[in-house]
Amino acid sequence: MKRIAIIFALLLLCSCSMPADELKIISFNIRYNSYENIDGENGWPNRKEAVVRMIREERPAAIGLQEALIDQLLYLDSCLPEYRRIGVGRDDGEEGGEFMAIYYDTSRLSARLDLSTTLWLSETPWEPSKGWDAACYRTVTCVFFTDKKSGQSFCYHNTHLDHMGPVARAESAKYLAELTDESEGFPVVLGGDMNSTIDDTIFNAFYNVGLKPARELTDSTSNAITYNGYGKEEGKVIDHFFVKDLRVVSFRTLNGDYGVPYISDHYPIEIVIEL
């Protein structure tokens, strides 16, 4: 963990003190592209234009994706030239498997690419690996940003906790809390598909290091379901943002009309923070 502490310390020294400004960030489980077309009418080919429309309409400074495969990312790359992408595939650390990719608007944010990384939620986080009782490889993409408008810096962690392994979810939460605790006072945004409702005790690890649920930090908020199952399953609130040392201006669940009934089996969530 010393390497992470050094990263945060270096960036904190580089952060200038300027007036506060507002910044929009979205977390979105995009739902992987099923080549067997198991999603039928809700398959990626029928959703992809609406996903781009959502991003263009909402215009986030950064957006963290879960479940994205390389063909989906290449499509988004082609449609969103003003954004740059960070992150690697979870299966091999290159292009294999799902990405916890982070896109950022290069006109608004600069990223320390030399210090940003993907870590595996396992006992060996620096290499592709499966942790504890997890059904899948799980990762967190960590990016260190500076807001070009305010000059302030922060860290954004984008993750996806396992859907099957309770031990893996709990241990992953502890590891994410360790990453936050190494921040040396640096502001942190942690978001993603947690596969857990907010009352789950795994989040005690977050609270112990000062991470707070973004939904609860603003009067302009939403408790609408985030997992929609394409309307075929009971909805759940399992996608979350947590923040440390940041003011949350608003929290939204983006369940509006972007041109198709569902742009994924999850609704995106959005926070506006003040730096």
Labels describing this entry:
275 residues, alpha+beta, Deoxyribonuclease I, Chain A, 13 strands, 21% helix
Folded structure, characterized:
The chain is 21% helix and 26% strand. The chain is an alpha+beta fold and 275 residues long. Strands 5, 6, 7, 8, 9, 10 and 11 form a seven-stranded mixed β-sheet that branches. A hairpin with a 5-residue loop joins strand 7 and strand 8 (153-160). It is globular, with a radius of gyration of 17 Å.
**Tally of contiguous helical segments:** 5
The main β sheet shows up as: 7 strands, mixed
Q: Would you list the SSEs in sequence order as H and E? A: HEHEHEEEEEEHEHEEEE
Structural class: alpha+beta
Write the layout of secondary structure elements.
Layout: H1 2-14, E1 22-29, H2 44-58, E2 62-66, H3 70-79, E3 83-86, E4 102-105, E5 109-111, E6 117-120, E7 139-147, E8 153-160, H4 166-181, E9 188-193, H5 204-207, E10 212-213, E11 239-244, E12 247-253, E13 269-274
Parallel strand pairs: 1-2, 8-9
Antiparallel strand pairs: 1-13, 2-4, 3-4, 5-7, 6-7, 7-8, 9-11, 10-11, 12-13
